[in-house]
Amino acid sequence: MGHLYYGTTPEPIRIPDRLLSHLKVVVATKLRRSESFTLSWTHVDGTPGRSTLWLQPAIPLRFVFDSAEPEQLNAQTLKDMADMANSSAGLIVALDAEIPATAAPVRTAAPAPRRSTLRTAA
Fold it and tell me: What pLDDT sits at residue 111?
């Protein structure tokens, strides 16, 4: 279970490592572009309700992972999260969601030979 530290609040938000890994990529991409947005979730720790954070470049964030090894990222999950973060509703995550494992790409044909684009002067 990873932790997201927001602003100067000492209490972390507990998020599973796999979800936190995907969240880190989407959040870092948005903030690097100076794009502010909201991040919302429903509480799963027995506390009723939901929470929303306003994320913007001036507010400190720290991602702490339980695992020393980085998670394999799922490209479709990243795309879905980025699309949601770009919407007026903001990024809404389910803390108990299962993110599918990334399958190795299946190659159906041999790659085409590379052609050089450089030409020598005659």
Answer: 52
